[in-house]
Predict the 3D structure of the following.
Amino acid sequence: MPHSDAAWASLLPAEPIELAPDFLWGVASSAFQAEGGDVPNDWVDAARGGRVPPNPGNGFWERAEEDFARLAALGLRHYRLSVEWSRVEPERGCFDQAALDRYRGMCDAAGGAGITPWVNLFHFTHPRWFAARGGFLERANHADFLRYVETVARALAPYARHFHVQNESMVYVLSSYLLGQNPPFVASREAAFDMTRHVLALQADGYRAIKSVDSGLVVAGIEVYLDPRPLDPGDALQCMAAESFDAWYHGTLLEALGTGWIRLPGREPEEIPHLRGALDLYGFNYYSSVAFGPDGPGSFADRPDAPLDTMGRHVFPRGLEEGLLRVSRALPTLPLVVTENGCPTTDETFRIRYVAAHVAALSRARARGADVRGYFHWTAVDNYEWHHGFSDARFGLIGFDPATKEREVKASGHWLAGVIASGRIDPAQIP
Ligand code: FCB
């Protein structure tokens, strides 16, 4: 048997998995995580204050063309990148044409390599000036973001046809406004509820801003599925904690995207103008399942020997399968794409198994009726993993030398290239 480990064996496909020829294979990244550098944003300020690690970047800003060529050679035909707002609008109202040109050049180069660029406008970082004005929490500031969204869409639209208003809006609210872990480090239930409303309104308004440039542009949402479960299903308190978290995090989101109405505990229901229908495609991110146990949230697994990644998360592909089905039932008219999935590890056997197990789960969800069109691996080149910085939390199919920034495709990259070329995952090819 090519994979001997008992815990993995129950997660990996026993039979070949066939992927349709039109299945989209891509990779996902974010501007700040890949480019890094001394940009005028809130994460750089947080690093200066010692609250998060510094970020020298992986060299993508200079080497995007080289990365696209390497990925195209592996058969990857889609690349999710993001725009660092603080680069293109370093001061309020002053757009930097050279930065816009660089992003336009990246999209052009991706297209030239046979890769479709998918451009995300907000991936957790804000320009310093925007953070200083109170960010999205101040409703009056939304116009600043929408002006930036429209400016970038107008600059890039000839070269990019796929856009995202924001990445994982609910995780942004959770980590930056409820748990207070990320800038601006607010821990407040009321602020989190305000922000839940605001990010949905931004999806609606951002969608319209992008479509105002060209109604033919595709605008996809992106949310990470957290798959909350009680650690002990017999424990009433743990069940209640998992359910109430789920009701806010997934329930509010899916209902609002489906109906346009937002319902939050203790607040009047509110209809968000233009939210209904404000996405053409649902981008579904997934990493692992969250357990609600006696000590609060942790990582869930249904067996004690489940494989663990370098960030301490158990491998649990069933959450991906069930989450895809749940979203497809809640939003039945929307096609889905897995816009992020991958694992932090320095062990290539682990990464290959992880991807095989999750693509198998995706394929089961498709067989059960979910309209899942593609899989974007997080990420292309090892990058800055937020609080973990550049550490063993390496998600890339490609590694790089920190001194020279020279890249090297890892075993997982070569393995995935074989899957893409053959259109199937062969159990015999899984180490
Ligand atoms: C996702 C984030 C992304 C990256 C991966 C590992 O939730 O969108 O920036 O950090 O996790």
Q: What stands out?
A: The first helix runs from residue 6 to 9. The mean pLDDT is 97. Residues 30, 33, 167-168, 171, 224, 285, 340, 378, 385-386, 395 surround beta-D-fucopyranose (CB under 6 Å). Residues 200 and 418 are 39 Å apart (CA to CA).
